[in-house]
Amino acid sequence: MTSLDIPELALVALVGISGSGKSTFAHRHFAATQVLSSDAFRAMVADDENDQSASAEAFDALHYIAGKRLRARRLTVVDATNLQPHARAALVKVAREHDVLPVAIVLDVPEPLCWERTQARPDRTFGRQVLGRMRRDLQRSVARLGREGFRKVHVLRDVDEIDAVEIRYEK
Ligand code: CTP
Ligand code: MG
């Protein structure tokens, strides 16, 4: 069993391509109310969790709620791909504004497996190339996370390891 140490109060950014298992991981390890998912916020503002044109408004709302939670000293998990530097910068900013440690958990799962999972989902209709692009963004991202201000960066590569993870809270 792999233990992931996380501060009791943190802003946890999940980082991973579509199909890497972010939502599954979030559901397994955190309370539903601790998880802010970009899909849920797209649905809230646009009635469609896949409406990419709603992303700006959705993230605006997500960051706002993240700020409210951190202000109330509540652990908050952001379930979004978080593959773009600007997306992560917004999370580091809201964490810093509230004196909370930003933490990244990277699910670096083999792309063929992610593609297999994604194809099995009726609610994911993008093509193989999109996933390839995400994969390249992920590879670029991993090296940068520390410099971007994430105080802890956990990179999980092994699917069995991801399944066996245990979160350990540091005081
Ligand atoms: N899945 C699986 N075994 C795992 C993790 C996920 O079979 N250990 C399956 C899920 O049931 C789901 C699919 O793979 O059908 C994608 O997992 P999900 O957690 O939804 O991936 P996300 O990273 O959240 O994908 P997205 O970015 O598209 O939301
Ligand atoms: Mg998801």
Structural overview:
The protein is of the alpha/beta class. 48% of the residues lie in helices and 20% in strands. The chain has helices at 22-29, 38-46, 55-71, 85-97, 111-119, 128-148, 159-163; strands at residues 3-7, 10-15, 35-37, 76-79, 101-107, 152-156, 166-170. The strands form 2 sheets. A 5-stranded parallel beta sheet has the order 3-4-2-5-6, sandwiched between helices. Strands 1-7 form a two-stranded parallel ribbon. Helix 2 (38-46) crosses helix 3. It is globular and about 40 Å long. The protein starts with a strand and ends with a strand. The relative contact order is 0.26. The mean pLDDT is 97. Bound molecules: cytidine-5'-triphosphate and magnesium ion (MG). The site of magnesium ion has 4 residues, from helix 1.
Number of strands: 7
Main sheet specs: 5 strands, parallel
Bound molecules: cytidine-5'-triphosphate, magnesium ion
Q: Please count the helical segments.
A: 7
Shape from CA axes? globular
Percent of residues in helical segments? 40-55%
What is the strand arrangement across the widest sheet? 3-4-2-5-6
Q: Calculate the terminal CA-CA distance, rounded to whole Å.
A: 21 Å
Mean pLDDT: 97
Structural class: alpha/beta
Taking all Cα atoms into account, the compactness measure Rg is 15 Å
> How much β-strand is present in the residues?
15-25%
Low-confidence stretches: none
Short account of what is shown:
With 171 residues, this protein is an alpha/beta fold. The protein contains seven helices and seven strands; from the N terminus they run E-E-H-E-H-H-E-H-E-H-H-E-H-E. The chain has helices at 22-29, 38-46, 55-71, 85-97, 111-119, 128-148, 159-163; strands spanning 3-7, 10-15, 35-37, 76-79, 101-107, 152-156, 166-170.
